[in-house]
Amino acid sequence: MFRYLPSMRKLMIFTLSMQQKLIKLDHLVDKARKFSDSSPPQVKSFPWNRAFDNFIQLVLDLVLAVVKYLSVPLLAVSSLSEMSYCAHKRKLFLVPIPLIIGLAVAGYAMNYFAMEGLKMIGPYDEIPKF
Length: 130
Known about the structure:
Elements: H1 5-37, H2 41-44, H3 48-88, H4 96-121
Helix pairs in contact: 3-4
């Protein structure tokens, strides 16, 4: 029986800490509810879901632009790496074949995934352009 006392003590400490965290979370929820109840009606009637959707669309557009412009330097570095390896092995005539295949696959994947991402998000004409 005395063997299990340290583990029981750890369990009790863990339970107490979890209860304290739940109390803090309940306090935070109550504060948020009071803040929401005291806000003016214009804030309550604002289309928050549409604003959130527009924000997500803008963030995804930025991510797509960054990925698009970072893929070009990555392609250049990987091509140089492949060319140096082929030159080291004296097989430089093989370089254009994987380069052309890689460009074709990257172009297809970029168009396919960009269109799938736009279909998942929704209509694109509602988003304001800056």
